[in-house]
Structure formats: structure tokens, C-alpha cells
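Protein modeling request. Please complete all fields; requests missing the sequence field cannot be processed.
Requester role: graduate student
Desired output: 3D structure, C-alpha cell encoding
Chains: 1
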Amino acid sequence: MDLKKNKMCGITGFYSNSLSTYNNVIEKMNSAISHRGPDTVGIWKDKNSGMVLGHQRLSIIDLSEAGNQPMKSSSGRYILSYNGEVYNHLEIRKELIENNANIRWQSNSDTETLVEAIEFWGIENALKKIDGMFAFGLWDLKMRCLVLVRDRIGEKPLYYGWQRKTTDKVFLFGSELKALKAHPEFNGEINRGAIALQLRHNYIPAPYSIYRDIYKLLPGHFLVLTESDLKEGLLTEPKCYWSSTETAINGNNNQLKYSKSDIQKELEKRLVSSVRKQMISDVPLGAFLSGGIDSSTIVSIMQSQSNQSIKTFTIGFNENQYNEAKSAKKIAKHLNTDHTELYVSSKKAIDVIPKLSNIYDEPFSDSSQIPTFLVSQLTKQSVKVALSGDGGDELFCGYNRYVISKKYWTALQLIPKLLRKSASIALQFLSIEDWNKISKILPNLSKYSNFGDKVHKGANVLTANNLFDLYYMLSSHWQNPTEVVINSNEPETFLTKNKPELFGLDSQQQMMALDFITYLPNDILVKIDRAAMASSLETRVPFLDHKLIEFVWKIPHSLKYRNGQGKWILKEILNQYVPRNLTDKPKMGFGVPIGAWLREPLRDWAENLLNQKKLQEEGYFNSELVRKKWLEHLSGRRNWQYDLWNVLMFQSWIDNN
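Delivered output (657 residues):
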């Protein structure tokens, strides 16, 4: 059967009791996210119900009209506007045919397979069967209800909420906030609690958004609104159909009992399977290659499955401490990929900054957003689809904070709490400047830059009550963001009072599980989705196959974290494809020298945004606290690059919104 699928797309929609008031509004909502799917525009309206669905389509395999959306099921009951890809849609279609489902197939698209699966099995049973990345809106003409759904891990975004600017209350939803903001009833009141969350984490975690009454649907959830809910302006609680925390607990409770070599072989087999099905494409396909363990593993498997050289792409920087391009080039040469690298000057990278507030829709301040956008732009010049290695750190214990937290806490536990608090006070008795002077005198300390800054940060760590406290400190930028965001209360999140019960997992595994439901969908996947979509590039993430995730959580933790290092078993697999000497290096991350840029080429731009009068007039931030960190950073006394970047990205965003 010919593979014909809808790939990258954008979805929009709204409900109103007075639909005739909003002629051509859905067209404006579609247009706002046309970059997500510039090939075809689709609209469906039901004047009787007040429901409108919109769709922007990017055709990658099927260019025919048969796959256009919004799509109606063969019986006419369901109307679907869908963004994403169902990787196992052919298997599902085969099962539908074998069940003698009375379907008049019109295309071979995965959209049609999805809507017919929902019709045949119902929404919950269909969701359990499908494997992929997706977000969609579904209108049920028979039951008169709207269903919004987001994929298990959160690869595809979905915003929703009630708004009223004038007289009519409308329900809005869409792939990006741009679509919702195009509706004339969009109110757009800033959520100050969300600003506090952004300053702590550098992102705004779901279900919150920067706007009051506008939410992100949580990964693995669906929302049902009946016609009476819509008429009365109500909002029901989303329902969970797949839980990553339950997956982690169940996996840990059912650890694999067979040998290390057998576990490794089975893991490799499942990785190959995930990569292979995500390589299916009739258009040019490639991969991001950073030179790290995760992307190198994905590329190695891709190349092993291909008769031609896989196209790989890397962004390089002249600053050595931020440059992984050299490592990537060596790995690409060994694997014989068709490799493209682009060294980016600081000016080229800085030129991206004015675009960030538009690309990311709401304040988002992971500074690796800059190279992510640049590598997406580079990749789009040659291919339409790219695979990435995201998700490997959370699954295989790869982040430095997991290792650091474990090592530090093991040592800290030996010191009585009272003694630790006393030591913390003592270390901070000397100023940062005094510690810097001491470090220049003592030979063993002279190699550390900003030594005083490190001492004071370490002093704060000494006050942690447990390993989770330590992890939370390391995961936070502004430690007390409500002190700097005026009139704010920091909402509860999965890392605070809403922390899920992770029975049976040790502290390090709990960090991994919590990152999987917070940092991964709210930072990593947001970063790559928006950067790639702004470049009209589709990205796929093989590590996030839910069946692979369920298997990985069954692997004994001792095969992930061993000898003080993470990703042990993944490295063992990679070293079958790439020599160990090419991959055995410290983890770098995908960063840029924001700290240095703020002191030099970005200084005037930042000074304008952090101007004390401007801060006071806008009224979002305590200007004295912000200015104090800015001046300390400029002087070199402290490195406040992350704290300042959080504020700067909000300031840049508010200027453009």
C-alpha cells in the first residue's frame, strides 16, 4: 500500500454561540500559523452547532486532495483537524479491514486511518492503539461534543481556553498561541504567576500559559466538551490516557531479569525498529548530529539501515567550549554520512534573537533555542524531515545534574544538617570578591573562573534537606522568582505540591521521571518543535516511541548509571558503531556563550530592555533586583547569564506583544 500521510500541520478552531459575528476569522487563525503547513488551507463550519475547525497542511508524501483536512469520517459522524503522524497507521488500517469495518476508504492517509479508528473503537480505545506524535481537534456530530487530544509525550503542542474581549465568550484552540490571538475575542491578560515559573525554569510548564485562562493540554491527555459545556462556557478536567509516571513505576516494578548482553541486544533491536519506522519518507530525510551520545546513536542506526549516505547537519561555534562540530565531523566521517556543517559567527547567532519572541509565542528562555533554530534552518535547505536524539538523557540518566546530585548528596549526607547550615553561613561571610581574590593567590584555585560565584552557589546547596531539594535548586534559575515578579504567586507544578507519587523509584530515578513530565515536554520538545516549524521542517524523535519508553523503564538502573556515569548501556550500543575514543568525552549540551555576549555584543540591546525606567513603567519586575544582577554580571563579579536571559526573553516578548 502506498504511504500517503499528512505530516507537519497546524490546527485551529473555535466555538461561538453567535458564529455569524466572526466571518473570515478562521481564515485569520489559519494564516497566523501558515508556517506549520503552507501547502493547503482547510476550513469546516457547522452553523447549527457554532463549531469551526481550521487546518494548515504541509504535504510531504501525499500531494493529492484526498488527504486534505478537516476530514470527515466515512459515516459523516466525525470531523477531524489533526497535526502529526501515526507511525503504525498501516497496521491499524489492516486491522480495521480485517474487522470488516464498513469503511469507504477515500485515501491512504494516516488522517483517514485515525478518524476511522476513532469511529470504530471509540476515542479511548483508538488512542491506546495509535503510535505517533499528534495533537488534534475532533467534532462529534452525533454526540455534539468537541474532543481535544495531545500525544503521550508532548511532541505536538495544543493550546485552549475560553476568552471574551467584548460581549461574546468563545472557546479557542490551536497549535500555537498565534492562532488564538488572531481571534477578535482574545483577551490576552498576562498571567504573572506564569512569569514567575518562567524565571525559575526558563519555560512555562503545562498546563499554564503566559495568558490567564489559556492552557496547554498535558501530554497523554484528552479533553471532552459537550454541547452543553460549550453553550454554558464551562471547562472540564482533561482525562489521562497514558501516564509516563505510571510507566516508570510499572517498569521499575517489573525489572528485566535476563542477562546484560540479552538486555542490550533487545534494546538495540527496539531502537532499530523505532528509527526504521521513523525513516519512512518519500522526501529527503536527514538528522541532527551534535556529536553527543544520543544523536550519534540515532545517526549510527539510521546509516546502518540505509544504502545511501544519510544527510547529517551540525552547527559549529568558534568558541571551543561551546563547539561540538569537531566531534560531529569525526563521527560523520567514520559513519560515512553526507555531512554538512555551518560555523556560525556570534553576529549570525545574535541576528536570530529578535525573531525568538515570534517563533516561541510566549516567553521561553532556553538559550540553546538559538543554535536549534540555526540548525533547523540549515537542515531545511537540504531535507524536509530530520530525526533528532532528544529524550535520551531523560531515559538513560544522561544529564550532569543527575550525576552531580548523586555525588554531592552522598557526601552531604555524612555531614549533620546543623553543621551544613553553619558552613553555608560561614562560606557566605566572605564576599564573592574576597573569594575571587583568594583564588588568585592559591595555585590550585586559580584555574577556576568566577570562583567566588561558585563558592556562594555551593553554600546554597549545603542548605538542601534531601536529594530532591538539591535537584530542585540545580533545576531552578531564580531561586525566589516571586520576589522579582511584582504581585505574583508561583503556581503549583509537578515539582512542588503537585509532585506525583513515584513509589519504588530511587532519588535519581525520580529526577529522570520528573524531567520526563516537565523539562522534556515543556523545554526540549517546545524548543525543537517551534524552531523546526518556523523553518517548515518536520522533526521526529525515535527515543520517544512509547513502547520503547516502556521497555527502557524495565531496564535495571544499574545498566544506565554505572561507575559514576550515566547512559552506560546506550554507550555500549553506540560503541558497536562508533569507536569509543570518538564518543568518550564530557557532556557539553547545545549552548551558546550568552554570558560573554551580554557583556559585549548584546550589551546595548540588553541595557535597553533592562533600563530601570522601562522596568518600572512596565511594572512586571522589581527593577532594583534585576538591575543588581545586571550590574554584577557586567562587572564580572557574578555570572547571572541564565537569570538575566529569563528576564530578557520576557522583555523582548512583551515588547513584541
